[in-house]
Amino acid sequence: MEKYYHFQADSPLSEVQLATLLCENYHGDLTIKMVSSNRGYCLAGADFADTLEVLLPLIVSDLGISITFLVSHANDHLSALALAKAALTHKEQCTHLGDLLLDSLLVGDRSLFPEAVKEFDDVPHEVLVTATVYAACGLNATMASRKLYIHRNTFNYRLAKFTAITNLDIRDFHNAQYFTIVSKLFSQK
User: Which of 5, 84, 151, 154 has the lowest CB atom count within 10 Å?
Assistant: First the structure.
């Protein structure tokens, strides 16, 4: 499963230098795209986050810049807003979108909430319920299908439909964490 690793530096950075540091230390598929002189994203597998945790201090010292990474399931407006917030609150860290959302809520900041909820506006009710129960069952599909009183194939179909509509694969822990936080906020709306 590929994820977006959005980054923002406090000053212009060299795409070549960044690519060299990342590609020499990560041996999976990696795409790097600059969107401005100090912002961009990497597209890589979920395991790239572990590599980034180790490489981040090296990137900061070798390039002489402050850089922040945000791991997200999409390249969208919410990710751009979250990256700007992460650059202020989680400087020189690699933070997952769900963690950032939770940290923001803990200090009373609900500014990302409206944009996060929009992502689920087009999801049919039964599909949303299926995803919610799956997350509540600890990502155990068998338990979730039993709890919903639906056949396992129906469950699989609905979960696949959820992923197709939202581009959020909640079989991944961090994506499930993000979805759980947003769904709790959505139910309080």
Answer: 151
Domains, in order of start, for the chain: 2-108 (3.30.70.270), 116-188 (1.10.10.2840)
The DSSP string of the chain is -EEEEEEEESS---HHHHHHHHHHH--S-EEEEESSSSEEEEEEETTHHHHHHHHHHHHHHHHTS-EEEEEES--SHHHHHHHHHHHHHSTT-EEEHHHHHHHHHHTT--TTHHHHHHTTTTS-HHHHHHHHHHHHTTT-HHHHHHHHT--HHHHHHHHHHHHHHH---TTSHHHHHHHHHHHHHHHH-
Give the chain's length: 189
In this structure, what is the dihedral angle of CA atoms 21, 22, 24, 29, given to the nearest 10 degrees? -160
Residues 138-161: tens digit of each pLDDT: 999 999 999 999 999 999 999 999
- pTM recorded for the entire structure: 0.93
- CA separation for the pair 76, 97 (Å, rounded): 12
Q: What is the mean pLDDT of residues 58-77?
A: 94
Output the pLDDT for position 188. Answer: 67
What is the per-residue pLDDT across 25-44, written as a single tens digit (0 to 9) for each? Answer: 999 999 999 999 999 999 99
